[in-house]
Design a protein that fits this description.
InterPro entries: NUDIX_hydrolase-like_dom_sf (IPR015797), NUDIX_hydrolase_dom (IPR000086), NUDT19 (IPR039121). The chain is an alpha+beta fold. It contains eight helices and 13 strands. The radius of gyration is 18 Å and the shape is globular. The two termini are about 35 Å apart.
Amino acid sequence: MTPATPKQAATVLLLRDGEPGLEVYLLRRTRGMPFAGGMTAYPGGGVDPRDGDTEIAWHGPAPAEWASAFGCDERMARELVCAAVRETFEEAGVLLAGDPEGGAVVPDVSGDDWEEQRQALLARELSLSELLAGRGLALRSDLLRPFAHWITPPVEPRRYDTKFFVAALPVGQEARHVSGEADEAAWLTPSAALDELTSGARPMMPPTTHTLGQLGVFPDVAAALAGSPPEPLHPISPTFEETPDGKWAVLPDGTRVRLVVPLPS
């Protein structure tokens, strides 16, 4: 069979400094979803082609720099960064936008008027560029860092070419459990999340497992933002193997990630 063409997507590891150390915002996808149902993941989703067509107020690294980081053209880079910002707002209620001159980041996006626009974004009745233009805001690409690049293996019927970003929770904003695609949202340290994976309480796809391991070496948000992988990132597409002690995703460097499936509800 001809492998499915991967869809372009972006996902964001939203970070904060908590009492136990560096924490990341995680969503558990509802079990009935056709892709990764019951799995823990980060906020994220597919690109909106409209973001490649329109001018958008932009502060921070330009699309050309993101294109270099992810090995794509400038139009796709623009769509990916916009997807990262839009999906973080849609699924976590956090907006990485602010003063076009690089000043303050918008401090609060939890009011009724913001919620109405978040719902319009979800319904694709409003584009990110339209939302920002209407409020005199700029997308703040300086709040994001490239972190990883994964492509779903050819054997899967649903495939995604996903760029992973890291971003700090802006001062004055709070992540909110607003995603209709998730039945749980939590801030966890990478080690706590991986402990729950090991116990079987928090199944994850291999990209989530692996990036949590990468994130776990950083003591705080500042270190994570400063220590993002060098450019350009190389895409990872695992293969699979089954042994007497379980099923594994095998990465190009030989690293093996155990596959854990959700328990029946």
